[in-house]
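Second attempt. The first submission of Spore protein SP21 had a stray character pasted in from the spreadsheet, which I only caught after the job came back as garbage. Lesson logged: always re-copy from the clean sequence file. Corrected sequence (148 aa) follows.
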Amino acid sequence: MLSTSFRKHWDPWQELNRLPVDMNRIFSGLSDAVRTGAQVFPAMNVLSGEDRLVVTAEVAGVNADDIDITVEGDMLTIKGSRSVDALGEDEKYHRRERGTGEFSRTLRLPFEVDAAQTEAEYAQGVLTIVLHKPEASKPKKITVKRAS
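This time the job returned cleanly.
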């Protein structure tokens, strides 16, 4: 038998009402791709520093000449295509998980960047893009003058 003090503080209906809120909190940390089962290509990381951003994208199997990068204001777009593996006459797929064809991914950056200073490098299947903050957007130190 439950004690009177325990029954007074615990309400099973209140617990059930809190369940959707708790479930939303748990799943809110998961990306849309994980929740829906969809794959987002290319996978990207964005690192920010005081005066620049570094974006890395996994684009294994994509020829560097087939990658198109555009920057406009605070938007970065990476487009490209990954070709289909050539199969011999007597070959067939037993498993096919790597996507092929055209892709496009657009990211909104945390600040506008100077497109003219953007640099990109492709090595070992990873595209690295360095985007610099324009001088006009960088923080400026303001000197406080004493009133006379």
